[in-house]
Amino acid sequence: MKDMRDFIEEGEKIGLVKRITAEVDPYLELSHIAKLNEEERGPALLFENIKGYSSPVITSVCTTEERLAFIMGQSRDSSLFDLYDIWAKRGETLIPPTWVDEAPCKENILLGDDIDLYKFPIPHYYPLDGGPYYGTAHFIITKDPDSGWVNLGTYRSQLFEKDKIGTQFIKGKHADIMLKKYQERGEKMPVASISGCDPLLFILGASRVSAFVSEYDVAGALRGEPVNVIKGETVDLPIPAEAEMVVEGYVDPEAFYEEGPFGEYTGYYSGVGTDPRNFIQATCITHRNNPIHHGTTVGRAVTDTHMTMALSYGATLWQQLNTMKIPGLQSCYCPPEGSGRFLAIISIKQMYPGHVDQVLTAAISTEMGAYGLKTVIVVDEDVDPWDIPRVMYALSFRFQPNRSQVIKRGRSTPLDPSLPISAREITGRLLMDATIPYEWKNKPIPIELDPDVVERVKSRWSELGL
Ligand SMILES: Cc1cc2nc3c(=O)[nH]c(=O)nc-3n(C[C@H](O)[C@H](O)[C@H](O)COP(=O)(O)O)c2cc1C
Ligand SMILES: [Mn+2]
Fold first, then answer.
1. Is 143 touching ligand 1 by the criterion CB < 6 Å?
2. In angstroms, what is the span from residue 353 Cα to ligand 1's centroid?
3. Is the distance from CB of 97 to CB of 242 less than 8 angstroms?
4. How far apart are alpha carbons 334 and 340 in whole angstroms?
5. CB proximity list for 396: less than 8 A, separation 6 or greater
C-alpha cells in the first residue's frame, strides 16, 4: 500500500471501505454519519458527493483492529498486541525515504491568489467547534534547524482563512521544540501539512516516535521499503510523493490567531473558548486531481481517533520498553477507551527483586509514557493484560496499595479533563504493582483442582444431569 487510493481500492474489494454517493453536508452531517458508523464499527466511508464541492472526503480509516492490520500489511485477524509486537521488531531497522523527481502530489500547483482552501470540502465536526477543521487526520512536516531531523506530527488545524490554518503544538511536542529553535534564531519555521496519503504515515504522525528519529524512517521500517518523497515547491521539506493535498507554508513564532475550541478525543472540549496560537501561513497548495481529504472523528471513545492512538501510542510504548532491553517483558495493553495513552497494563515474568518497580518507572520514562501516561499496572505473566477480568482479579487479590507509588509530577496533556482547565501542564502518576512479590519466600498457595477427580467427575457429567 503506497497511498490512500490503494487503501480504497483494495479495501473496497474486501468490504473495509464503502462509498457514500448520496449528498452529504460537510457542516456536522458528514462527521455525524462517520461517528455513528464508527460506533457500530462500520467500514471506512468515502463521501463522494459533498454539498457544494466536487472532491471527496474519507473518514474512519483506522477505526477497527482489522483495518489497522490491513494498513500495516498484517493478517486481518491480528490483535492490537500483534501489531505492537511487529512494530517493535520491525521499527528498529530504520529505512530513510527515497527522493523522486516527479510525483502525483504535483498534479496541481496553486500559488499566490490561487491559494484557496475554501475550494476543498472541510468538515465542521461538532456544534461548539470554533469552525471547520482542515487538519484532523493530517500531519505536519517540520525540520530541526540544527540537525536536519525531519518530523511528522499530527496536530490539529482549524481553517481560518483561505490561506491560513491553525496549529496546536502542545509544549514539548517535536514541532514545538523545533519552533522554539526557529524563534531563537529570529526565523519563521517552514512547514507542510499533508492530508490523504498512505494511512500508515498518518498513524506515524500520531505516534510517539522518539525525538531525533524521523517518522519517515520508521514508516520505511514498518513497510520494509522506503517512502517516496519529493521536494516542496516553496519549502525545503520532503513531501510524500503520493499525497492527496499538501499545504506548504511557514509558522511565524511571533504571530497568533484565536484558535478553538475543538471537541477532543477525551469526549470533552479542549477548553472553554479560544486561545491565541501560532498558525500556518500558506505559500503554496499542491494536490492530486480530485484530491481525497482525510478526516477523523474525535469525541467520546471508542471511535476512529481512539483506535489510531491505541495503535500509535501503544506500539511506541511497547517498542520503547523493548529498546531498553528489560528482561521478562511479556505483553502490553493500552486500552482504546483511554485512547491508548492514559492507562497501560504490562505483564512481565519477574526475575529479580525490584523488577516490577523497574518496569513501572521505565514505562513513565519512555518518550510515550513521559507524556500524560497516568496509570501503569504491572501484572504477572499468568495474567494477560488484554483479559480485563483477569486484570481485575490481579487488582483485587495481588495489588497492595502499600507497594504502589504515586508520583505527583509528570508532564501532562492540556486536554486531560481530570485536571482543572487552568492547570493542566503537570499530572500525577499512579504506578500499581499487581503482582505477587518475587522476593516473598512464602507466596500465596494457589488452589488447584485434583486432576484425577476432574477426570472422574467429567465422565459423570451426563449422569449428574449437567
Ligand atoms: C486526530 C489527532 C489529533 C491530534 N491533535 C493534536 C494536537 O492538536 N496537538 C498535539 O500536540 N498533539 C495532537 N495529537 C497527538 C500527536 O499527534 C502525537 O502526540 C504525536 O506524538 C505528535 O508528534 P511528535 O511526537 O513528533 O511531536 C493528535 C493526534 C491525533 C490522532
Ligand atoms: Mn516525532
1. no
2. 37
3. no
4. 4
5. none
Retrieve residue 79's grid coordinates. 490483535
d(Cα 334, Cα 284) in Å, to the nearest integer?
39
Which listed ligand is nearest to 294 at the C-alpha? Answer: 1
Q: Is the pLDDT of residue 157 over 90?
A: yes
Reported as a pLDDT band with limits 50, 70 and 90, residue 93 is: very high
Residues, the chain: 466
CA of 266 to the centre of ligand 1 (A): 13
Per the DSSP assignment, residues forming a β-bridge with 108 are 287
Pocket-testing residue among 35, 129, 154, ligand 1, by greatest number of atoms within 8 A of Cβ? 154
pLDDT digits (tens, 9 = 90+) for 99-144: 999 999 999 999 999 999 999 999 999 999 999 999 999 999 999 9
Phi, psi of 280, deg, nearest 5: -95, 120
pLDDT at residue 270 in the model:
85
Residue having the nearest C-alpha atom to atom 4 of ligand 1: 155
Residue 174 Cβ contacting ligand 1 at under 6 Å: yes
Measured distance between the N- and C-terminal CA atoms of the chain, rounded to whole angstroms: 53
Atom of ligand 1 nearest to the CA of 137: 1
Residue 174 CA: nearest ligand 1 atom is 27
CB of 169 closer than 6 angstroms to any ligand 1 atom: yes
Over residues 412-441, the pLDDT tens digits come to: 999 999 999 999 999 999 999 999 999 999
Percent of the chain with pLDDT over 70: 100
Give the distance (Å) from ligand 2 centre to CA of residue 179.
Answer: 13
What amino acid is encoded at 114 in this protein?
A: D
Q: Quick one: which atom of ligand 1 is closest to the CA of 316?
A: 21
User: Is there a contact between 287 and 117 (Cβ–Cβ < 8 Å)?
Assistant: no
Phi and psi for 11 in degrees, rounded to 5? Answer: -65, -35
- Euclidean distance between CA atoms 192 and 235, whole angstroms: 8
- Judge if the beta carbon of residue 11 lies within 6 A of ligand 1: no
pLDDT exceeds 90 at position 85: yes
What ligand is nearest to the CA atom of residue 296? 1
Domains in the chain, ordered, with CATH? 78-294 (2.30.110.10), 324-434 (3.40.1670.10)
Q: Which atom of ligand 1 is nearest to the CA of 413?
A: 11
Task: Name the closest-CA residue to atom 11, ligand 1.
Answer: 170
CA 260 to chain centre: 20
Per-residue confidence (pLDDT) for residue 289, from 0 to 100 = 98
d(CA 61, CA 18): 11
Closest residue by Cα to atom 7, ligand 1, is 155
Exposure string for 44-60, b = 16+ CB within 10 A, e = fewer? bbbbbebeebebbbbbb
**pTM (predicted TM-score):** 0.96
